[in-house]
Amino acid sequence: MTFNILISDPLSEDGIFPLRQAEGFNIVIDTTLTPEQLGEKIGEFDALLVRSQTQVTREIIEKGTNLKIIGRAGVGVDNIDLTAATERGIIVVNAPDGNTNSAAEHTMAMLMSLARNIPQAFHALKNKIWDRKTFIGVEVKNKTLGVVGFGRIGQEVAARAKGQRMNVIAYDPFLTAEKAEKLGVQFGSVEDVIKAADFITLHTPLLKETRHLINKEAFEKMKDGVQIVNCARGGIIDEDALYDAIVSGKVAGAALDVFEEEPFIEHKLLTLPQVIATPHLGASTVEAQEIVAIDVSYDVVSFLQTGVVKNPVNLSSVPKDVLAKIEPYFNLVEQLGSFVSDLANGVPEEINITYSGELANLDTRPLSRNAVKGLLKSKLGESVNDVNAKFLADRLGITVNENKTTKSKGFTSLIVVEVKTATETRKVAGTLLNGLGGRIVRVDDFIVDVVPAGYLLFIRHKDQPGAIGRVGTLLATEGINIAAMQVGRSEAGGDAIMMLSIDKHVEDSGVELLKGLEDIYDATPIDL
């Protein structure tokens, strides 16, 4: 059997070598196609390989009557209509690991350039100025590097920094003290890291929790003369706050490859001699571009020959009759995963998903992937999807178990998502109510009835008169309106909970005030 492959964006010959060496593959390379021409041709092909230039729209996908797989030679898939591809059972693959080495190397290049003022000194020479005194740098040996975000790239940076004989302290939501010890780094919270570091490098996704993570308050906690590198995502640093911190002398310098708005050419940061910057070059190496093409090419070959892929992006297809029955639960189960992720303290070690009632008779694996996706997404960001969630959990050392029972437990179908960490076990249960949609019906051992949407506030407290009133009064002073409230207790005067639906997110300062109230044990904001 012959498979027809269309490559519509420039890829190197080395990158498509796996396609060249596979038997039965007819490769057509045409990087000049207009959208209209692509639409006319796409029906002839089994696979389409692109980078960022080709826009794989719903119209293109619907005309791809023989299309089985779309490969994106890179990480982002914004130029591919994933929904349309999924609806037609077309798998989409990308290359999430291909830029790891390049990004780590660029980070270290920026760090060393920052420490030794290399760009500034070169610029002076270009202007015929020989100035050694102004550009005296600092050694990185025996300095402490704080790594915020300790995934693939963060770990690669740490390995290189240790080669420079730096001390490394790291934070990541999935890093434990035991894992850190095995990797040869010190473990700490974000605050521990930024307080201890002489140099700080950022490697987190951009989430609501990490947007402006490095802000005015964070700068105040840092050492005087700290130096900062960001080759991860624009928006993690509050750029105006960074400008002020550099002008005040708190921050000695910053090396930036990513920015809140790109192209980044007008910001006042670029007027400061202590700032060096590059135009988002972290993954811009010949090798990285080849590696992502190779990874995607191997996936295309593997899928067409065996049906197996390494880096799927969209939801794999299930029989239509099964999909019709489980699809209404997709959003609910993802929300349950997200909810319990915010609820649990510590790094997840085990996830148990239990289906009761009618769901127990169906293929619930897509639902379980969505539950894991919800749990991981709040920490790892948009890179987590329905298909790679289980793979990412495995890589993080998280065990995922699926259990079923036909006992209805009073509901037509019930889903329980339980998370175990080293210190506790937390669980949440949800169901669909006819005409009312999804509901959270149990948190730990407390019965509730809560719509899993918007801004929620979960409070554990002692069952005493006045506790609810004190919470309401404090939220009022914070300008937060309560839309709905559920309460539950184990026994009169014992442990109790409040579950509040509120109109906006409770900031960290408000959470601390809540925890300080009489009879309040804990308060957790949960944004769904």
UniProtKB/TrEMBL annotation:
InterPro entries: ACT-like_dom_sf, ACT_dom, ASB_dom_sf, D-isomer_2_OHA_DH_cat_dom, D-isomer_DH_CS, D-isomer_DH_CS1, D-isomer_DH_NAD-bd, NAD(P)-bd_dom_sf. Residues 456-528 form the ACT domain. CDD domains: ACT_3PGDH-xct, PGDH_4. Pathway: Amino-acid biosynthesis; L-serine biosynthesis; L-serine from 3-phospho-D-glycerate: step 1/3. Pfam families: 2-Hacid_dh (PF00389), 2-Hacid_dh_C (PF02826), ACT (PF01842), PGDH_inter (PF19304). It catalyses: (R)-2-hydroxyglutarate + NAD(+) = 2-oxoglutarate + NADH + H(+); (2R)-3-phosphoglycerate + NAD(+) = 3-phosphooxypyruvate + NADH + H(+). Its EC number is 1.1.1.95. Keywords: Amino-acid biosynthesis, NAD, Oxidoreductase, Serine biosynthesis. Catalyzes the reversible oxidation of 3-phospho-D-glycerate to 3-phosphonooxypyruvate, the first step of the phosphorylated L-serine biosynthesis pathway. Also catalyzes the reversible oxidation of 2-hydroxyglutarate to 2-oxoglutarate. Belongs to the D-isomer specific 2-hydroxyacid dehydrogenase family. This is D-3-phosphoglycerate dehydrogenase.
